[in-house]
C-alpha cells in the first residue's frame, strides 16, 4: 500500500534569520541587559574604526540577507533610547550599532521535521495529472525554539516528485496587531481565571469585533473601578496577554513562499510554534482558506492556536477556546458537516476524539472515537493531520506509540455524515520506522502532520526521527479495502469478553 520515494529534506544550518540580539539576554536564566556598556564601547570607537568595521560586516553578511541595511536600521531604532545624543551620530555608526545588536539564528540548526501538505493556490502551467503543493515544516534552532517553514513542489502523474529550490534568504515578515472577536475573547478570559463580574464589565464596553485601541479604552474604564472590583487587576493583565496572543504577519511580495518563516511573536508561542497541521478549508461561498492548528509553547505551558491565510503572504495567528481545544494534536476537517465545523482532538493526551463548533473558534465537548488497543499504539494515539475525504468515508491517518517509544502511522475510516462513527481501523501499522529512519534527534519515529489526496494516491510527507523529512505515496483504494476488511476496532469490553 505504501511506496517510499527517494526525495528527502534535511536541516540546512545556512538558512538564517537576522534577529535582534541584546547582550545579556542570550542566557536562559533571568539576567540584566548589558546594552549600556556595549553601547559605550561602540561610541568610543574612532570614526575610521567605525567605517572599517562596518565595511567588514557588510562584506561578510549582506549576501546572506535580502535587506540587511533595513534590518540593522530597525534594530538600531529598537535600542536608540539607550544612545545618548543619537541624533549626532553618523549613519555609519548607527548602522554599526544595529549590527552589534543583531545575530544570525539558524532556524533549522537542530532539526527539520513534522510536515503537512496542501494544494498550492497556483496550479497554472502544469501538465495534466500534476499537482503543485505547499509543504509546511517544523524547524528547530538554538534553544529548541520551533518555527514554521514552507517549501513548494510538484507531484507528477506517477511517483515523480520534485521540490523547488527554497531560495537563498529567509525572512520572518512584519508582525502587527489583530482584530479580536468578543465572544472568543470572553471565553478565553473565563478559561484564564478572570472573575465573572470584571470580565462582564470589560466585554460590555466592546463591540463584536474590536481592535487594540478599543480594548485599551475598555481596560481604562475597568481600572477606574478597581476599588470595587477586586479581580480587575487580574482581568486587566489577562486581557492584554490574550490580545497579544493574536497577531498578523505580512510578508514582502519580493519574497518567495519558501523564504517565509512564521516566527513566534506572541506571549503564548514565545518559545515555539510546533507541528502545524495545514488544511485547505472550503467556505460556504466556494472560496477557500488555508487553516492550521499549531502547538504554542511559552516555556511552561502549551496551547492550541490557529493559523489562517488565503495566499501564504499574509497570516493571522489566533487562540482557540473550549474543552476540545486542549493539549496537542488538534486537526480541522476540510469542510463543515451538518452545518458545523468539525475537528479531531486529543484533548486527553491519549485518545482520538471528534469535536464540533458553530464558529470554528470555540470547540465543545469532545467525543472519543478511538482508543489505543493495538500493541503498536498502547502508550497513546493521535492524528497525523486533517482527515481526507473519500467516497468511502473520512480517511484519518493516526500515530501510535508502542514499546521503546516507537512511533508508527496507522489509519482510521470515519463515516462521511457522522464522523464519530468508526468504519474501519488498521490492525497493523501502515508505516513503521525502517532501519535507515530510526536514528535522529528523537529516534524511532515516523510522524506526519498532514497528507494530500491526488486522484487515487495519497502524498504522505513524514518526519523520520526528527532528522529528515521524507515522502511516501499511499495507494488509497488498497488502503480503503484493508480498512473495510479490518473493520471497526473492538471496544475494551468486547476484547475482555472475548
Describe the structure.
The chain has 498 residues and is α+β, with helices and mostly antiparallel strands. The protein folds into three domains: 328 residues, Tachylectin-2, Chain A; 79 residues, no CATH class; 67 residues, no CATH class. A six-stranded antiparallel β-sheet has the order 8-11-15-14-13-12. Strands 1, 25, 26, 27 and 28 form a five-stranded antiparallel β-sheet that branches. Strands 20, 21, 22, 23 and 24 form a five-stranded antiparallel β-sheet that branches. Strand 12 and strand 13 form a beta hairpin. The longest helix has 15 residues.
Keywords:
single chain, 498 residues, alpha+beta, 3 domains, 10 helices, disordered C terminus
Topology:
Layout: E1 2-10, E2 16-20, H1 35-43, H2 47-61, H3 68-79, H4 91-100, E3 102-106, E4 111-119, E5 131-140, E6 146-155, E7 161-163, E8 174-177, E9 180-181, H5 182-191, H6 196-203, E10 209-210, H7 212-223, H8 232-245, E11 247-250, E12 273-282, E13 288-297, E14 302-309, E15 314-319, E16 331-332, E17 341-345, E18 352-357, E19 367-370, E20 380-383, E21 388-390, E22 393-401, E23 407-414, E24 422-425, E25 446-447, E26 452-454, E27 457-464, E28 468-475, H9 476-486, H10 492-497
Antiparallel strand pairs: 1-28, 2-3, 4-5, 5-6, 6-7, 8-11, 9-10, 11-15, 12-13, 13-14, 14-15, 16-17, 17-18, 18-19, 20-22, 21-22, 22-23, 23-24, 25-27, 26-27, 27-28
The major sheet is characterized as: 6 strands, antiparallel
* Beta content: 25-35%
Give the rounded overall mean pLDDT.
94
CATH superfamily of the largest domain: Glycosyl hydrolase domain, family 43
pLDDT < 50 runs, ≥5 residues: 492-498
Total number of distinct structural domains: 3
